[in-house]
Amino acid sequence: MHDDDALVKLGGRILEALPGEVASYSVEHGELTVMTGAEGILKALSFLRDDSGCRFKVLMDICGVDYPERALRFDVVYHLLSLQHNQRIRLKLQTSGEVPVPSATQIFPAAGWFEREAWDLYGIPFANHSDLRRILTDYGFEGHPLRKDFPLTGHVELRYDDEQKRVVYDPVSLTQEFRSFDFLSPWEGTVYGATDDGKTEEGS
User: Fold this and answer.
1) Is the pTM of this model over 0.85?
2) Residue 155 per-residue DSSP state
3) In angstroms, rounded to a whole number, what is the distance separating the alpha carbons of residues 200 and 204?
């Protein structure tokens, strides 16, 4: 059986087994993606881990994706691996970021750090997580740096104060007004305007 055919068959099996939890599935570029909802994510994860035709026992990653123009702004994406069947699967759900997503730590203990990372970088909350705190940024960090509306300069800057002999935080102060530059590609080169004699400045 062709790899895509096997993934289509697996997607159909999952959709049939979880009609209330799985909304749809797709196979693109040799990868199976299953769309679910926050309310059904734990049942879907349990099925994928325990079902004899799935056996996705390894949680490889949980990550966030930000689409600020959507009402349900964030995607939470789960990547699972089945060593028994040599297959991978991706689960995706959408959330506004206001209502917590159920934590998967009771099913996959490895989810703990992944969910902390999604909370730290995107501000996506997870319900019933035993230790949901920042993991990559400092505890006093303001905001969530992978959100697309997070300012490139950040809100504060960190420096060592030699007088106080400690690290301090200062509000960010820009030395000049923000400007948006429209640079040409270095492969295209610069197009110069015409001179008085009608020739370009690049040469005659």
Assistant:
1) no
2) S
3) 7
Closest CA to 41 of 88, 108, 130, 138: 108
Cβ count within 10 A of residue 23:
16
CA–CA dist 137, 180 (Å, integer): 28
CA 7 to mean position of chain CA atoms: 24
Sign of CA dihedral 131, 137, 139, 142: negative
- Encode pLDDT of 44-101 as tens digits: 999 999 999 999 999 999 999 999 999 999 999 999 999 999 999 999 999 998 999 9
Q: Which domain holds residue 16?
A: 3-137
Q: Is residue 124 part of a domain?
A: yes
Residues in contact with 163: Cβ distance below 8 Å, sequence separation at least 6, in sequence order: none
Q: Whole-angstrom Cα distance, residue 32 to residue 85?
A: 14
pLDDT digits (tens, 9 = 90+) for 16-53: 999 989 999 999 988 999 999 999 999 999 999 999 99
The CATH number covering residue 10 comes to: 3.30.460.80
pLDDT in the model for residue 1: 46
For residue 40, the 8-state DSSP code is: G
